[in-house]
Amino acid sequence: MSALSFQSVSKIYPAKSQGGAALKALDHVSFDIEEGEFFGLLGPNGAGKTTLISILAGLSLASSGHVTVHGHDVQTDYAQARRLLGVVPQELVFDPFFSVREALKIQSGYFGVKHNDDWIDELLHSLGLADKAHANMRQLSGGMKRRVLVAQALVHKPRVIVLDEPTAGVDVELRQTLWQFIAKLNKQGHTVLLTTHYLEEAEALCGRLAMLKQGRVVALESTSELLKSASSNVLRFKVDAPLPAELAAKARVTGRIVQFPAQNAVEIEQYLAAVRQAGLVAEDVEIRKADLEDVFLEVMSGAAS
Amino acid sequence: MTGWQTLFYKEVLRFWKVSFQTIAAPVLTAVLYMLIFGHVLENHVKVYDSVPYTAFLVPGLVMMSVLQNAFANSSSSLIQSKIMGNLVFVLLTPLSHWSWFFAYVASSMVRGLAVGAGVFVVTAWFTPLSYAAPLWIITFAVLGAALLGALGLVAGLWAEKFDQLAAFQNFVIMPMTFLSGVFYSIHSLPLVWQQVSHLNPFFYMIDGFRYGFFGQSDVSPWISLAVVGSALLIVSAATVKLLQSGYKIRS
Question: Cβ separation of B94 and A96 shorter than 8 Å?
Fold first, then answer.
């Protein structure tokens, strides 16, 4: 049985005003995540990632389709499904009335977990919160609040951990701490579902990926297969002046840095020749293997909208 | 503790941590009403034959405090959690709609009854009171607190902004409380307004509550019990239904 199963999930938001168009946030999304996987859900803003996670978590109701957690339907068998899920919400929310330890004890109580102090101590320690246990939530910095959100999601030792952009706006140290801890839990058998905009994180951590675009799954494959499927190389260099339009259309341009996806040496020579003909000088030229960002851009531009 | 008990505990802890604002302040307000209205009206208003006005006023103020604070607790807790976004911590749990209902209503009852007890202890100093039927006192205090706790839950679910909640409070709850006979016996009103008052469920809460003190009331306490009990059942059923459907909390 799959840890998570999305079966033809659609979500349509009704038109806000009369004559306005209904918004199809999710369009028959189907995929399964097996127990113990580290799975990444990628897509640009507005692709439907958070909507999908909200439906999984019971924060939102699907317009049609089903979602199950270890076979338990998130709507008809929600209590069992939510016991198996630990969700780290994207928004940095907190309850200003309580200290860190109080918040974690209360969260344990909601799940009916008693005498949870040992596990709470371990969570505080692993997430670098030990010295903040008695601090009030409102005194914590953004990064610290984020750690508490992670701890709150894990108080009941859920079999499936869902992280919705946990590293957005978070410093390097926390990212390291967080990923070490999540990777450890994953090794112990916990299933992890992650959404992120940091593609190098997804590439490093996730065994399998789904890409969403405008509410539809446009890629679903193991990370290594996805990387293989892309143009194998990238030609990267710097220029001082803008590229001619027809060249720029084929490239990924970030300021002075220009990157061309290329299959082989012939293509690379052609690009360099074209740059020379345009009267530009390419500096710091390098050829590298395609990474997930290249694949992502290829999939997103290729997928029919 | 089980799930709903934890939510109940958290809700009690929430107002307890700011008890100066949630308990002491409303007690002071009620005492001010007592001092001012009692002073001004003591020799001008006769309610039942043998009951001095200040004594008549005390149960009214106690009940008004119970009702307003029970309402304030569930409604403000919910709207704050919705606006702060931390309601998600409860939404993510396996707690059922019944657990939500019992936890929010029971914690509101605790707050309402705590404030009511505070008002009672302070105002009872000012005037001799009788306690003709204490069981009625407790019954109406508990039922009234539960009804307003449930109403607060409905208002908290419905409101999306603080001003919507304030409107509900100022245009529904306040007039219904003030026009229910807190400060006067409805027998002193013109006939039309007496009849209108009979349509107000808050009237029966206060009237029944007062019966417990004086053994006299505008209507029989059994009628009041029937009205308040039915209102509680109807509002509770509606509240549980709203919670079950995820009204305005699960999109």
Answer: no
> In total, how many domains does chain B have?
1
Chain A residue nearest residue B84, CA to CA: A93
Q: Are A79 and A112 in contact (CB under 8 A)?
A: no
CA closest to A61 among chain B residues: B251
Q: Which domain holds residue B191?
A: 3-245
pLDDT, one tens digit per residue, over B159-183 is 999 999 999 999 999 889 888 888 8
Within-domain flag for B88: yes
Q: Do β-strands A72-73 and A252-254 pair in parallel, antiparallel, or remain unpaired?
A: unpaired
Adjacent-strand bridge partners of A115: none
| C-beta atoms of A91 and B88 within 8 A | yes
| A54 interfaces chain B, CB cutoff of 8 Å | yes
pLDDT tens-digit readout, A268-281: 898 899 888 888 88
**pLDDT tens digit sequence for A233-254:** 888 999 888 888 888 888 888 8
Its pTM stands at: 0.89
Identify whether B76 is part of a domain: yes
Query: Using alpha carbons only, how large is chain A's radius of gyration in Å?
Result: 22
Rounded to 5 degrees, what are φ and ψ at A236? Answer: -130, 130
Q: Are residues A162 and A254 in the same domain?
A: no
Q: Which residues of B touch A (CB under 8 A)?
A: 1-3, 5-7, 9-10, 13-14, 17-18, 81, 84-86, 88-96, 246, 250-251
**CATH number of A236's domain:** 3.30.70
